[in-house]
Each structure stands twice: as C-alpha cells, then as structure tokens.
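re: that complex we talked abt at group meeting.

here r the seqs, copy pasted straight from the sheet so there may be weird spacing, ignore it
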Amino acid sequence: MEKLPHIPALRLGKTYESLNKLDVNRHADGQVLARVSTVNAGIIRKDLRKLDAARAALKKFTVAELIEISAKAGEEFLNGTLPLGDQGHTQSADDYVRTLSSTSGLPHNMVRMNMGKIHYALTHMQTVLDGLTRGLDLTIIDKGMGTQGGARCCFFPAAKSLGLVMPSNSPAVNSLWLPAIPLKYPVIIKPGREEPWTPYRLIQAFIAAGAPAEAFGFYATDHEGAGEILNKSGRALIFGDKNTTDQYANNPAVQCHGPGFSKILIGDDEIENWRDYIDLMDISATANGGRSCINASAIVVPKYGREIADALAKKIGPIAPTAADDANARLSGFANPKMAEWIDSSIESGLTEPGAEDMTAKYRDGARKVDDERGLFLRPTVIYCESTSHTLYNREFLFPYISVVEVPQSEMLEKMGPSLVLSAITKDEAFRAELLEADTIDRLNFGAVPTNKISWDQPHEGNMFEFLYRRRALEIGD
Amino acid sequence: MSAVSDEAIQKAKQDLDRHCVETIQWHFSPETGCPFWLDWAQKQGWDPRAEVKCFDDLIAKFPHFQDEWLRDLQPEVWIPKEFLGKPFNIFETGGTTGMPKQRIGWNDFRTDYSEFSEKISDEHFPRGGAWLMMGPTGPRRLRLAIEHLANVRGSSCYFIDLDPRWVKKLITNKHFDQAKAYMAHVVDQAALILKNRKVTGLFTTPKLLEALAEKVDLYEAGIRGVFAGGTTMDPQYVRFLIEELLEGQIGFYPTYGNTLMGLAASVPITAEDNYSVTYYAPQPRAVLRVVDPVETTQLRAYGEWGRVELTTMTKEFFMPRFLERDEAVRREARAPYAWDGVAQVRPFGAMEKNIVEGVY
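got the structure back, here u go
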C-alpha cells in the first residue's frame, strides 16, 4: 500500500479526518511515517458535551466484564495485528515496535519492555484494581452501593471522563489510564507529538477486545485543545516539566505527573557496603534509557560520594549508542534535537559553577552528545556535587543522568528534596521511622530495591480509584 | 467551480481601467481633488492624469501608500473639493498601539454595503428580520455599515460592543483570565438579546460565534444567517464552523474587509473548495492583489502565497497599493467575479511568528 497511514481523530465512536494534519517523522532522518489529524478546541468542547452517551456505553458492562475485556485487550496489544488509521493499514506488534522506536528514539528492546508493562497491567487488572481500591467488592461500582467489611458503602463517579495530555517520552505511562476503562470512565486522550502510536494501539486493542468505541476520544490538538481536555474532562492527568505541572498544582481535578526526582539514599549503617549497590544504582539510573520519572536522578550518601560517583561513572560512562534493533541497546535517541541540545548545554553551563565534576567524562571516550546516522543521543552522565545547593544536584533529564552528593544522615531529609521514589538502603529502624513519616516521599523502598521497580498493587503518585470515585454516605429507610 | 469566460475577464479589466482613470482624474484635478494628493503630485514632478491610462500604469507609477499618512496628518487633507463643508464620518482601523489609522468618508460605506446586500440570500437573512451585531463598534466603519446593511434589507439591528484593542492588550500582557472574562461578558449580552428578542441575522467574529454557539442553540434562537469576518479562518476552521457549529442549518458568509477597503465577499463554498474560502474585492472600487513580499510589483502565481496589496479608488478616498498586514493565496476569477481572489487570508508572517489576533 503506497498511501501513508493516516491516524484520524476518534470522536467517541466516530473517526474524523481533519483538513489539518501533523506529520510524524522518523527521528533519525525525518522521513514521514504517518499523518495525524489535528482538531481545534471547539471540536473537543463539542464532543465533551456528549460524555453521557460515552459513559452509558461503558455502563452496559459490569466491572468484571470490563476486566475480562482488558485482559483480551492486553493480548491484542502485545501480539495482535490491529487497525492503524483509516486508510486500510494494519499494525502488527513488530510493526509497532519498529515504528515507535523510529519516531521516539527508544530502542526496540525498551519498547518491548514497555509493552510488557502495559500487557501486565491489562492482564492483571483485577490485581491493579484490588491495589487501587484496597480490595473493594467491585460489584459495588456496578450497583453504586453495597456492603464492604460489614459497612454499607456507596461510591459515585467524580466526573464523566478522564482527560489525558500524554507525553512522548515513554509508552508505559499509558498504563496509568488503563484502569479507567474497567472503572467505566471514558478517556479523552491528546497523544504526545512523537507518540500517537501507543494510545491509538491501546484504543484499537480495547475495541478489538469488545470495549465500546464510544468510550474513547483521541484528539491530536493544539495548546488550547489540550487546555480544554485538562479543564473540561472532569478529571485529568497531565505529564510535563515543573513549569507545566505547577499550573495545575492546586487543581484537585488534575493529577500532575511531572519530574520524579527519584533518589537512592544510603544510611550510615550501610555506607561501608556501598560497592554492593553499584549495580542497583546503574539499573535505577539507566533502565528505560533513563527517561522515566522513576529513574533515579540523585544519590545521597553520608560519605564516599566521590568514590561512589567514580565507580558508577566507570560502569555506565562507557555505555554508547547502538542501532535501534540491538538487543543490548541501553540508550534512546532524541526525537527532538533541540531537547538534547538544551540538556547538554544546561549540564555544561552547570559545570562552569565550582563544586561539580562530570565523573563520566574520562570513561566515555568522547563527547556527551553523539549525532550520527542512528540519530542524536546523550551518553550517561554522573555528576559529583559538593553540596545539594549546586545547580546540577537533583536535576532530572531525559537520559541517564544522576548526581551524587554527600549529606550527613541527620540532614538528609531536610536537604535532599522531594522524591517520587526513594530507595533507602538502611536497616536503621529510627531512620526508617523518620523516612516513613516524611511527606516529601511518594513511594518508599527499603533495602536494595531499584527505584524503577513498580508493583501494581502499590499505587504511587496518586490513586486512580480515589481520583475517579468519591464515597458518599448513604442511609436507606424502610 | 463556476468558470469565468475570457470575455467577462476582459470586460472587468476594461471597467477597472476606466474606473482607475476616472479616479485619478478626480483626485488629481485642482477642481475636485483633495489637498493631500494635489500636494503630493506637485512634489513628484509628474502628472498622474497624464500618465495613468490604465490600472497597470497605476501599479507601475505609484509607490506604496504609507499608513503614517493616515496616522500623522489631519483628516481635512483628505477632503475632495466636492465634499468641502460637508460633515464627514471618521473611521478608525484596529489601532493596538499609538495613533490609529483614520479614514474619512461620507457615503462609501453605504455604497459598499448596499452592494453586499445583493450577495446574501433572503433565505438566510430574511428581509425585515432583525439583525444582531456582536463585534467592534466604537470608531469603526463596521458599526454604521452593518446597520445600513440591515436597513437596506428592511431590518433593524441590535448591537453588542467589543473593544478589540482591549482584548489585544490583555492577550499581549498574558492576562488570559481577564480576556476570557471579557469575552464571556460580550457573549452573555448577546445570549440575553437572543433569548428576549427575535433575531434572524448575525454579524460577528469567528471566535465570538464559536463562544455564542456553545451557549445558545443558534438555530433554535431563530438565527438563519451568519455573516462573519475579522480573524484568520483556515479551511479546517471554516469546516468546523459550518459542519459542527452551524450544523448545515444556518447560512455562513465569511468576509474579508477593513475600514480602508470595504468588504470582500466570498463565493459560496463547494465541496471541491475543501473549505478554503476565497474573497473577491468589490472591484473596481477596491482591488486586492497577492504580490511577492519582496518584489512587490510582481504578482504571485495562482495558488501561491503572497502579501495582500490593496488599492481603494472611490471619489471619497484614493489609496494606491497599500500593503496590508496580511498574506493570502492568489486565486483565479470565479463567477460572479471576473477578477482575482484572495484565499486563506492570515496575518503576514503567520508561519514565522506568533501574532496576537484576539477575538477580532
């Protein structure tokens, strides 16, 4: 088929080809791989007025049925050949891997790893929902009320839909919205500029598995349209940098997923064993190309900071770009060259301030930024910082970047800053108790647990069920 | 597409040449001309009456009209002899910063809009049915023009004012909440009128139309025709307005115009247009050309983008080769218009930079 795939807007059950389209390009050479219809905010506003019908389509199913549909969707997503757009194209799982890799820069092995995470979430939806609802009898969602633990309870949806303004950095972030479908919430998605593939494929997988097409909105749109999705869907998730998420920080209807500033901490009691944790630091910093908010971006230790930074740099500094289909690939290319250039210059600028050293420089045989026929890459960077006040401490970038700093244990909580994930390597019960009390830590791992390890029964960064449903007091008279 | 015969195009060209020569004679004769142009010709050392024999001569011999002339000079310098002693209207253009451009006039707006009345259908704008204008009034020609348009069709018009200068200031200063609140204030007033009065015709800007239609079912409220202009309408946006907002039930008449030109009407949009709107100037009173932005004597080829150049030629006002702050695609003649059109008008340089258009 010679025609390019065209990905239409999905308007709650109807496809829509716009006169305005965006090209999705291969990052290495700019070749157009597909065109995506873009719509103006007015179309989104109009569709959001029809959410009752979208929700009604999902309400025809029980939660149990939707869990089954989710499981089938997981298989379709992982292995199926699904429609790609409205020009008769289809997409196999291998096509998806190749295409997503070529537009996002993620190597094939990482795309497959992300597929695995999504597949797991879909095929273990009961576990996911048990984690989110703390074991609630899910028929209560179907009936609106019921009895749990001997008490009457009633839950009602807080809104009519879940809006999502998606990023392009990592396909697995889509797993965050998957529980919305069995929880009978229509989803209104603005895909990331370079990553329409995953949400579109997921929607097709759900539809192939029996979910109603009316439950899905897919709108590539402009800034105004994204604002409408965030402000008018009822409940919404936004992903972005601190500037973006700060705008919605005080809006309870919008859940912000910004930088994670995830960290590894070693206590006084374990610091003499620091060499045992270099592999943990490596995986925490480099997994998924260092693109996730759950990748560690700082290591906080009471001593041996320079030695730890050097040992880690020696391990990850030599990691170099590979072909996208290399089974051992560990770096992602940048779809947006300006982003890579900005990151590189920010680090170089930070290094001109006294008190920081790029420990990886001597181990990577060349510049941090590599631009060749495979694309544009940034090689892993470990920065030793003399203090937490240095510009390069606790920065989060879209590649394996990590700073190491020495802070006395007694000052760690005060100085290290907030963490989406903190892996605390300490057996000191008093220190653990302090960490358990800290309100600056979202997910806490004790012991040798990489920051990027997630478990679906332990929701972090906001509980989707509590976000989508509210509990109401209910009395029923005779 | 309605083809235009070579004969019709030739005749339109002859009409334009004749009108151009008459206009030059009028404005550059001491018996009829205005102080500005008589003075200008004297300083140039050539007599336009002798050297301009057709419109092409005008393009070849006149430089671009400078907008400073309309800002810096007193309005009286533009009064042709015949109008001396007759009070005039003073109309202003957008004017976001500093002194706005001003054009004086007596009857041009009536002529332009009486002519335009023939281009809108009775089905969409029933004669005698009331109009509502929600848009810039104040010092703009549009306010009197729309009322005249309604009047010539036996109708009256309600007005809701919008101050576009304030909106642009709010947006430029990133006071988006205030801009939204002001827009809501304007739309609320229009919704109130539609709720309490019988209105069949609406003039507004596309953005305000969108906001009003989200608040009021326009067809249910009695609106049968919408006449809109003011901001960029790319083909997808036009399609959105027609299909999604007006839902094919209400006639939609996009126009391109300003205080200096009058009103360029569009031909009815057909499927093969793909919602790309083409506007035709009220020739021979005004001429729109799409020119090379650098070599401005050169016309762009059909289908190419270029800068919009306007020449206005009436007895009240002569403005040769004014470079608008707009760019457009040059289009061929299309019945009933036997001259070039301009399509997909947008602010000049829109592809290169962000331009504040506000709601107007």
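couple things i noticed - The domain at 6-258 of chain A is CATH 3.40.605.10 (Aldehyde Dehydrogenase; Chain A, domain 1). The two ends of chain A are 67 Å apart (CA to CA).
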